[in-house]
Amino acid sequence: MSETVLAIDLKVTCADHGTHEGVTMKVIDERVVYVTPDGEELKGDCCVKTIDGGSFLMPLTVIAAMIEEYRRQE
Amino acid sequence: MTIPAEEAQRILSREGKGRRVVATNFQGTLYTRAQLVAAAQKKAEVGTTATRSDTAITKSKKPQTDLGKQQTVAAAGDTVPIVFCKRSGTVGGTWVQPALIKTGSNDFVGSFLYAISQGQMVSSPVKYQAWVGTQSIQTFASAGTITLTHYYASAATMAAAKNVCPISSGKVFCNIDTYSYLAPIWNTSGNTERVPDYSALYNATNAITRGVGDTSNSVIVFQNSDVDVIDNKTGADVTAGYWSYYGIDPASTQSVINVNISTGGGNVVGTIERIPVSGYTAPDPSYFTNFGATGPITIIFGAGTVNNQYNPSLPASTGTLYGIQIEYQLSSFSNPSSPPGSADFTTFADITFLEIDGNIYDPPDSGSYPTTTRQLSIFYQNGVTVDLYSNGLVSGVYQTGASNQFVDLAMYMFTLMKRVSGATTASLAAPIDVSNLQTLATFCTNTGLFFNGIIEQSVNTIDYIAKTAPFFLLSFVSSNGRYSLQPLLPLSAGNTIKTTALTAAATFTEANIIPGSFKKNYVDADERRAVNISLVWREADPLIIGIQRTTTVRYSTTDSNAPTVQFDMTDFCTSAAHAAVYGKYELARRKFSTHSISFSTPLLTTSLIPTQIIEVERQRINSRGDNRQEAEWYQITQVKHSSDGISVIEAAHFPVDGSDIARISNEVVNGTFEVI
């Protein structure tokens, strides 16, 4: 299993208007996921719509491509 | 303005005796009137860009004096050179300064592709005879990891599999849209990232940590609010659309580079992060249009701040983090090593490429990681493999291999033109007579006349051979519907310059010279005055990069400050001895050959051809009672046959002594010269 962390300490807003803090954005086996501090994966009704804070650890071009990939997955 | 003699006479007649025509110098240049205006600039020729690129001395493949210059880069349309050489003993081989045609970067190790020669090189490249700038690759600190590899595929091989790139390293690719490169270092000063065309190209991005010492808890933080996103095509600022489309609040987010995910601190120097971990990310046709750009963009980061203790639970770093450097790998193919069947790389056929893998980049100044290199200079003992006409037929075929024989070069140039093939030995099909090539090659070997060099410009084959042949004491002639190479000086049975009595190929007398047709023209006195002959040639010492040298030849009675006539032999000559032979020939010819003649004769049925020696005997009678037989020897320069049954022979004076020994030949072999 390969895992690459793209962003940390994210504050995000989901499709259901719920907000989460301390979220990590990562690529796991070519799948882009957002994971809350308690291990919950944000998807489906809870899929991430906006990133309202946090730190990106990869170039913005990579972040952009991964956000787009996440949207395709969802 | 140089005026031909006939024109000068016409001007004299037209302008009358009252006008003075002044001969201003000994070359016969005449000025008829005052020059009142300066010459206007000439209009440029059309379509000369590629030609001018070829002729630029800075792009010469022959080593130039500035060995430390930046690597020359080939432009599309430049001529691929021909490296033709064979080292024999301590003579020959050649240094080449090839042009760089493509670069790549794989895990931050550079790959550099150079076009060496048309044809297949015999010698393999070696590190100790390859220099980058003024340093041998063998002495690089990283020499052990640097590799030099030739790649070559024949036209037949490529025709059978057009989509197979002959450069099979997997690091540099034939496909023009498959490439990789390093971006400038991204440091606290900020970063300007010209984003590749992710809408059309498969892509992979790697990042390496640059710095010194311990950087295990160092990162650089950039505020996304300082980022500008510019549409390259329109120049429009699309920053707002960019953040909006991706749903990112730039005011509350930041970009942090060099974070180590495992430790929560920083990466140590040399760490490489890969996205994706393997393979390529597929292109996204909407990548740029999604946020309102028309195509590729530039992302500009403002200044950042170093944090040497990003993870507060770890000790602060003690080293210096310079930043990170991005390596882009891009391709229009999902797997560049396995191009689709529609790919056609046949333009790479029949060219020897050199790939150097390893970091030969310029050494970094503090905190900089240049992506430039110095000029590559490489010595080859043996050049391209050719049909060895110089060896004659061996078991009915011509062998192949490297050569230093001019006759082999001439035939190779005809081979490239598809006019001959060594595998098809029927000489009648060839545009050039091959029957004497072995003899001429033996003569050149005996006399020390070898071709070791580079043909680096697009040349006319006939013109090149004809103008180069005299430097090998050969003449390229056309006779009886075919070309042939002939010796400029008669040869002995042992294929050396003949210094024994000659036998004329034909003798012409008043019996067969048509009355009134005989003309004699004396050589301009300037062409016969004492001069220094300067011959420029090129060293071919494997230990030092071959620089230009000159050899000067003169008679001992000639002043050192006499006018100099220079001949450029740098295309092929690698020995002072060769240069001196031609210098001696030139001096001897100037000394002894005083005139040329032409005359008509009833149609020749003999096979007289240019370079052959004839004797002309004429009765000289004048009104003062002079009546004597005059006999002179000549070398034919041209024979023209006309439909009215007349042949016109033109010939240059080729005097013999009382023993019928050619004076020019004897002077070249036995004369006394000063060679400096």
Query: With helices defined by DSSP (H or I, 4 residues minimum), what is the helix count of chain A?
Result: 1
Mean pLDDT of chain A: 93
Q: What structural class do helix, strand and pairing data of chain A support?
A: alpha+beta
The amount of beta strand of chain B, in percent, is: 25-35%
Radius of gyration over C-alpha positions of chain A, nearest whole angstrom = 11 Å
Task: Note the gap between the termini of chain A.
Answer: 21 Å
Strand content of chain A: over 45%
**What is the ordering of alpha helices and beta strands of chain A?**
EEEEH
Query: Which strands sit side by side, in order, in the main sheet of chain B?
Result: 27-33-34-35-32-28
Q: What's the total count of β strands of chain B?
A: 36
Name the largest protein-protein interface in this structure: A-B, 27 and 31 residues
How many strand elements of chain A? 4
Query: Main β-sheet of chain B, in a few words?
Result: 6 strands, mixed
Overall outline of chain B: elongated
Q: Mean of the pLDDT scores of chain B?
A: 91
Rounded to an integer, what's the Rg of chain B over CA atoms?
34 Å
In short:
The complex is a heterodimer of chains A (74) and B (676). Chain A is an alpha+beta fold.
Name the descriptors.
heterodimer, A: 74 residues, alpha+beta, B: 676 residues, six-stranded mixed beta sheet, four-stranded antiparallel beta sheet, disordered N terminus
Q: What topology emerges from the helices and strands here?
A:
The complex is a heterodimer of chains A (74) and B (676).
Chain A: E1 3-14, E2 19-28, E3 31-35, E4 48-56, H1 60-73
Antiparallel strand pairs in A: 1-2, 1-4, 2-3
Chain B: H1 5-15, E1 22-23, E2 30-31, H2 49-55, E3 82-84, E4 94-96, E5 99-106, E6 109-118, E7 130-132, E8 135-136, E9 147-151, H3 155-160, E10 179-182, E11 191-194, E12 202-212, E13 219-223, E14 228-231, H4 239-246, E15 253-257, E16 272-275, E17 297-301, E18 305-307, E19 320-331, E20 351-357, E21 376-380, E22 386-387, E23 400-401, H5 406-416, H6 437-447, E24 453-455, H7 461-468, E25 474-479, E26 482-487, E27 506-508, E28 519-522, E29 532-538, E30 548-554, E31 564-568, H8 576-592, E32 595-602, E33 613-621, E34 627-641, E35 646-653, H9 663-670, E36 674-675
Parallel strand pairs in B: 27-33, 29-31
Antiparallel strand pairs in B: 1-2, 3-24, 4-21, 5-6, 6-20, 7-8, 7-21, 9-20, 10-19, 11-17, 12-16, 12-19, 13-15, 13-18, 14-17, 22-23, 25-26, 28-32, 29-30, 30-36, 32-35, 33-34, 34-35
